[in-house]
Amino acid sequence: MYPVLRLFGQFIRHRRAAPLAPLATHVSQHRCLPWDIDLWMELNNGRTLTLYDLGRLVLAKRVGLLDALKRRGWGLTMAGAVVRYRRRIRMFDRIEMRSRALCWDARFIYLEQAMWVRGECANHIVYRAAIVDAAGIVAPARVLAEVAPDLPTPPIPDWIAAWSDAEAKRPWPPMQDL
């Protein structure tokens, strides 16, 4: 079940937080609860992705993206992700999540998030986010014109460009030969 109460709690906790610049980092605190764990008594990988939603949505609120989405009738969808798990997160561990927009290209905004436990990065994810309307993907330049019209386009890190290139070569739909 989606943690709606936790999502509302994050919005309430950060309701008086200052707006953020579009490329600034939103920091939020979370806890690994008993219903977040798997058979190995650690944070379930599916719940990890759901917890990242909590940080990403409050980030979108603080940078003004949610207002722009509402104003224009746009939606926000995740179009891909690359994730690294490096440390186990155990039940009741305190998690510091850091969320930020990293860069964008002609189609996607790349969002970076990490979970830190006891001063170590436990996992890290980069999402390809697409803003969509009835006609399809809305160009990030158009979105940024709504949120921060004077913001210069940051350079795309080499590893993000390589990931994007690899995704373009990936067969779709997959498993055609089965």
Overview of this structure, please?
- It is a single chain.
- By secondary structure, the protein is an alpha+beta fold.
- It has a single domain (4-11, 20-169), classed as Hotdog Thioesterase (Thiol Ester Dehydrase, Chain A).
- It has five helices and six strands, in the order αβααβββββαα.
- A hairpin with a 4-residue loop joins strand 3 (94-104) and strand 4 (109-117).
- The radius of gyration is 17 Å and the shape is globular.
- The model has no long low-confidence stretch (mean pLDDT 95).
- In the predicted model, the low-confidence regions spanning at least 5 consecutive residues are none
Oligomer: single chain
Element-level helix/strand string: HEHHEEEEEHH
What percentage of amino acids are in beta strands? 25-35%
Cα distance, first to last residue?
32 Å
Structurally, how many domains make up the residues?
1
- The CATH architecture: Roll
In CATH terms, what is the fold-level topology? Thiol Ester Dehydrase, Chain A
Number of helices: 5
Highest CATH level, the class: Alpha Beta
Structural class: alpha+beta
Brief summary:
Helix content is 31%, strand content 30%. It has 178 residues and is an alpha+beta fold. A hairpin with a 2-residue loop joins strand 5 and strand 6.
